[in-house]
Design goal:
Shape: globular
Distance between the termini: 24 Å
Order of helices and strands: HHHHH
Number of helices: 5
């Protein structure tokens, strides 16, 4: 039951990400799911207001969706390419500013449960 509830929340979050802003006409892609994994991973690592266990649950759910949807080898390759890009993004903005921006984005999407 818990996995189904989490899957439903992740599905709703993925849908809201896909429909947010001018990207509404775009399909969910392997790169987009990899970005979702890296986002949750780095929010847990760099943002003190994030509850690491909650972010990890979302990370794992996105990881499972990516591997099931695109194949494990292809998704893992996309994720391996994405992780350094996300790290550079965090470094360029500075962790405090990056975290504030991500918090605002997540709250705007209705995802408040990963914050303290």
């Amino acid at each position: 039951m818990l996995l189904n509830a989490l899957g439903t929340r992740v599905g709703a979050l993925a849908l809201s990400l896909a429909l947010a802003g001018p990207a509404a006409a775009q399909a969910i892609t392997i790169a987009g799911v990899a970005r979702s994994v890296s986002l949750m991973r780095d929010m847990a690592a760099y943002c003190p207001e994030v509850i690491p266990a909650e972010a990890k649950r979302f990370e794992n759910a996105f990881l499972a969706v990516g591997r099931q949807s695109f194949g494990q080898a292809a998704f893992d390759a996309a994720l391996a390419a994405e992780l350094p890009r996300r790290e550079q993004e965090v470094r360029a903005a500075g962790a405090p500013a990056w975290c504030a921006s991500q918090r605002a984005n997540q709250i705007g999407l209705g995802d408040t449960q990963i914050f303290r």
